[in-house]
Amino acid sequence: MAAEGLAGLLPAQTQLEYALLDADTPQEKENLVYQYLKKMDSRERDLTVPELGGDLQWLNTEDPISLHKDLCGKVVVLDFFTYCCINCLHLLPDLHELEHQYSDKDGLVVIGVHSAKFPNEKVLDNIKSAVLRYDIVHPVVNDADATLWRELEVSCWPTLVILGPRGNMLFSLVGEGHKEKLFLFTSITLKFYKDRGQIKDNNIGIKLYKDSLPPSPLLFPGKVTVDKSGERLVIADTGHHRILVTRKNGQILHAIGGPNSGRRDGRFSEAAFNSPQGVAIKNNVIYVADTENHLIRKIDLELEIVTTVAGIGIQGVDKEGGAKGEEQPISSPWDVVFGNSVSGTQEDDVLWIAMAGIHQVWALMLEGGKLPKGSDLKKGVCLRFAGSGNEENRNNAYPHKAGFAQPSGLSLASEEPWNCLFVADSESSTVRMISLKDGAVKHLVGGERDPLNLFAFGDVDGTGINAKLQHPLGITWDKKRKVLYVADSYNHKIKVVDPKMKNCATLAGTGEASNITGSSFTQSTFNEPGGLCVEESGRLMYVADTNNHQIKVLDLETKILSMASNLPILNPETFDVTDNTAVQKDQTANLPKLPKSAPNIQLPSLSAAPGQIIHFLLKLTLPPDSKLNEEAPNAWFITAEDGNTWLLQGQYLSGEIKDVSCQTVIPFQLPRVCLSAEAVLAIKACLYYCSKDSSACMMKGVSFNQPLQIGTTTQGSLTQVELTHSFLTN
Q: Which of 215, 408, 446, 638 is least buried, going by the fewest C-beta atoms within 10 A?
């Protein structure tokens, strides 16, 4: 057992750190650390770390790791973290760089010790998602009950503990911003113990969780927004480090950046982002919170160019700002939204920024203007608007004296009587509002009165502080109904907030982290939804269901099962995209032919309008004791008879059927210009399945004929049609 926990390191390490402040050269610093290690190594009794426990759950390893067996002869960096914590995320690039410089063959091993703040973070599947999302490539142990945290008397996130080859504690680093010390302490520790022949070069059994996953069209989408027309979506495909612009039916118009992280301006084909989050679109311009690059980027859809408008590409610590955007360091921007300055003559002349990394809300002046309680500002200036920079839940009439805790979502209500920014303040588990008349910061729902208590979370519908949220990341204003929708991320729910009554209630989700489309909003499930938006008409809500790697579509008017669906993301490879019109490269040449025995099911006629989106929900049932042959080309496809082929222009005509246990969504959008009032569409499916004893395999098919009665007025609503069929015998 550790005799005194981290407190035992304090006297000697404090003395070392004072000495390092007086050292002038790198050589002097290295000598001081070397002498410190001599002193620590000759102690009568090591400060040792207890065994990690054989019953703990591990990620990124072949087997559980024993600290005193498997890591004997290694210098170990223990990273005590929790995945909600922005300060912990700021440390990850330093650890990545350290691991790049020294491998286990050199004697270094980094171990992430996940010690949860929120109950949701104790669940292994959620930690798996975080390990993938943040590209953590070292072993991670789920210390769900904070056993090691308590044994070592760790007091805050993040904390690094550096161990010698006997599991002996040598250094601790609390908080972020200690990169120089981390590299100095680690490199000299490796040298010190190599000189003594105590470093082993054996490999640790690393097995990255990400290597076992199939590819998906989206990877941890963080945010989504919709343009004013309601026709285009902008999706932050965060895990793929790219921005997607799609039609309402999911067809990709532009894919910008990805699949690897980077930092590059230029044409769409060469631009690069690093875990982008918030997106805002106006006309053909998109602004992006390029979170892990610490930048605000501008995408021009007409010129097909990406530029940087704020940030310098490294994490900033300045909590005031005031420089020209591209000269102003910023820190982990998480969301962006357009707004208006007090004195400006142009609409949307301010870009509000949720600056999660320093717990503030900032403004980027897109034109010259004035902010509430501020002086005139020039175009391009980027500066703090609200928040002291202290991590707290403090409301105040003076915006600079208020405190936020990792603000992660913003939404604007410009109309009276609101005229405010709404803020999803994730680490205080609250929704707050900032007046755009005078900058006053007020509480709306969640949290509690003590501004320093960031543990007042839960899942309770109610009013004001009696309502409880758990790490909300997204928020959007419904102009039509005058309510807010909140992505209550760690409760896996969408909540609705009436700001007039300060009432908060569950709109969608059961609280279970899964991916089920139920018979109502409250029977459907999400998994850490991170962002959401409502189209201008107030009809459809789009939710970035982050850990399910999907965009979910909810119809706010009908609130029925058929309107809680997944937006299929349709790859552009099938299309030549010219002037935003997708033209099918090869209409029907490669589509399979159904067997003659395939049933032809006639569907009731469907009334539709030009431009309308139809989602066909295909649900096929195999005979008992049969299984899908997943190696075979199981597919759906859409055809039309001669005279109706105009229906197919710009459509995605085929797709895979990967799993018959759940619905396959087949998207279709009627052309905006329809050539006749009546048409027939055929939706076909071709399956290969075998008896479970594999004694026989067969190909089966089914065709659904959908007559369409096309009206003359355009409408943007989404219609869904169920296609069900059971293959009864082999």
A: 215
**Residues 28 and 170 grouped into a single domain:** yes
**Beta partners for 514?**
none
* Whether the Cβ atoms of residue 565 and residue 720 lie closer than 8 Å to each other: yes
Rounded CA separation 410/288 (Å): 13
Give tens-digit pLDDT for 669-681.
888 778 888 899 9
Residue in 387, 394, 517 with CA at minimum distance from that of residue 451:
394
Cα(406)–Cα(387) distance, integer angstroms: 10
**Residues 6 or more apart from 293 whose CB is under 8 A from it?**
263, 273, 274, 311, 313
Whether 544 and 448 map to the same domain: the answer is yes
**Domain containing residue 194: CATH number:** 3.40.30.10
Backbone angles phi, psi at 496, to 5 degrees: -115, 135
Q: Is residue 587 part of a domain?
A: no
Q: How far apart are CA 556 and CA 331, in angstroms?
A: 35
pLDDT tens for 450-480 read 999 999 999 999 999 999 999 999 999 999 9
- Residue 372 CA: distances (Å) to CA of 385, 406, 425: 9, 22, 21
Q: ∠ at Cα 651 (650, 653), nearest 5°?
A: 140
What stretches in the chain show pLDDT beneath 50? 1-3, 561-564, 572-589
Give the SS3 label for residue 33. Answer: helix
Range of the domain at 527: 214-572
CB 477 within 8 A of CB 461: no
Indicate whether 170 and 39 sit together in one domain.
Answer: yes
User: pTM (2 decimals)?
Assistant: 0.78
d(CA 610, CA 251): 17
Give me the pLDDT at residue 4, please: 65
Distance (Å, rounded) from C-alpha 250 to C-alpha 554? 15
In angstroms, the CA 289 to CA 355 distance is 9
Cα 93 from chain centre = 18
CB 277 within 8 Å of CB 295: no
Q: What is the DSSP letter of 537?
A: T
- Beta strand 581-584 pairing with 376-377: unpaired
Closest CA to 362 of 335, 397, 401: 335
Residues 554 and 657 in one domain: no
Distance from C-alpha of 685 to C-alpha of 592, rounded to nearest angstrom: 9
pLDDT of residue 716: 52
Tell which phi-psi region holds residue 354, choosing left (phi > 0), alpha (psi between -120 and 50) or beta: beta
580 falls within a domain: no
Q: What is the pLDDT of residues 681-698, one digit of tens each?
A: 999 998 888 877 655 677
312, 300 Cβ separation under 8 angstroms: no
Same domain, 195 and 240: no
- SS3 annotation, 351-392: EEEEEHHHCEEEEEECCCEECCCCCEECCCEEEEEECCCCEC
Residue-averaged pLDDT of the chain: 89
Assess whether 174 and 190 both reside in one domain. yes
C-alpha radius of gyration, the chain, whole number:
28
- Asked if residue 225 and residue 178 are part of one domain, the reply reads no
